[in-house]
From TrEMBL:
It comes from the Bacteria. PROSITE patterns: ABC_TRANSPORTER_1, ABC_TRANSPORTER_2. Keywords: ATP-binding, Cell membrane, Membrane, Nucleotide-binding, Transport. Residues 9-240 form the ABC transporter domain. Pfam families: ABC_tran (PF00005), TOBE_2 (PF08402). The lineage of its organism: Bacteria, Pseudomonadati, Pseudomonadota, Betaproteobacteria, Burkholderiales. It comes from Rhodoferax koreensis. One of its GO terms (molecular function) is transmembrane transporter activity. PANTHER family: SPERMIDINE/PUTRESCINE IMPORT ATP-BINDING PROTEIN POTA, SPERMIDINE_PUTRESCINE IMPORT ATP-BINDING PROTEIN POTA. GO terms for cellular component: ATP-binding cassette (ABC) transporter complex. SUPFAM superfamilies: MOP-like, P-loop containing nucleoside triphosphate hydrolases. This is Fe3+/spermidine/putrescine ABC transporter ATP-binding protein. GO terms for biological process: putrescine transport.
Amino acid sequence: MPTDKDILVSFRGVKKTYDGENLVVKQLDLDIYRGEFLTLLGPSGSGKTTCLMMLAGFEFPTSGEIRLDGKLLNRVPPHKRNIGMVFQNYALFPHMTVAQNVGYPLQVRGVSGEARQRQVREALAMVRMEAFGERFPAQLSGGQQQRIALARALVFKPQLVLMDEPLGALDKQLREHMQLELKALHRQLGVTFVYVTHDQGEALTMSDRVAVFDQGLIQQLDPVGALYETPGNAFVASFIGDSNRLQGQIGLREGDRCTLNLPGGHVLRGVRVGEATPGQAATASIRPERMRLVDASDAAKAADAGNVLRGHAAGVIYFGDHVRLQCDFTEQPQCFVKVPLDTPALASLAPGQPVALAFEPEHLRIFS
Ligand SMILES: Nc1ncnc2c1ncn2[C@@H]1O[C@H](COP(=O)(O)OP(=O)(O)OP(=O)(O)O)[C@@H](O)[C@H]1O
């Protein structure tokens, strides 16, 4: 369990409005631990960048407090915060060489001569760009420029590095490669990274913990695995990974479980997330890989052990190693499951035919 000593940054009761009317950050209470890789993930406009900008010092909170190492930051200007930054459009200075770009933060901090040269060499070595010191930014690829931006952010050994969509301009292959590099660099340096993205794959690949933002609020803050396995609400369930949604009414409530009555007559058992007052409207979610296609004779057995949903096949798409089966259920959004190729019930399946999907109650999360 982390203690107060492990906290590098804390946001307390932070709110932000740009126009004096709408709060784009409604209430932010967040502790960032020393050495962690924390990602702020959320759809466009959810307030992630604003939070990062307040931490960097380019925006100020309308109310609340931000502390770095216990010290109140609210009115400390950006260059006094000892924070490194890499942004998608945080361009390198075009008229300076790579070495001059990387040396710039040292220059403004009054580091000169041999000490500056040595630190620039070390920073370039860190991002494996030692051989490029004399080039100009225009003579580098996008990925190389981003490495230099990273070296420039790290050269003065900040205790905290902020990154806002730093890989957004790169193509998919390079982006995935750089994600692994960033993660390795983080492990090697032990510096605290705070990373903003709207790409959930990127967040899951790199982070220790992820704060999922929506509408100016953190919806859930958890390690990557917990976020995927135990989403705290329907938004997080649909934003992280694939999930199927089912809508109905709460039937019975029993401890940490409850039942969901679907309009078509199905009664499903699942994990209760929320109050679950009987009769209340609720949304449930289930990961496609947690559902099994079963044939009619197995469906009765499966229903005794867990849940079975009966509907009709809407589409069958072959993916080489599995089949993606789309299913229609009465008054529900379409669901899909990933069916292994050796599943017996798959043999003669065609669109329009009846299907039965079985799943365990512990994998159905019922949000109310
Ligand atoms: N300087 C500004 N002046 C006025 N409104 C702003 C300003 N910056 C951001 N906003 C508004 O604040 C809200 C949150 O924006 P923010 O950039 O924090 O979201 P985001 O989650 O980072 O989105 P994106 O992924 O698109 O960058 C948006 O509605 C945006 O239009």
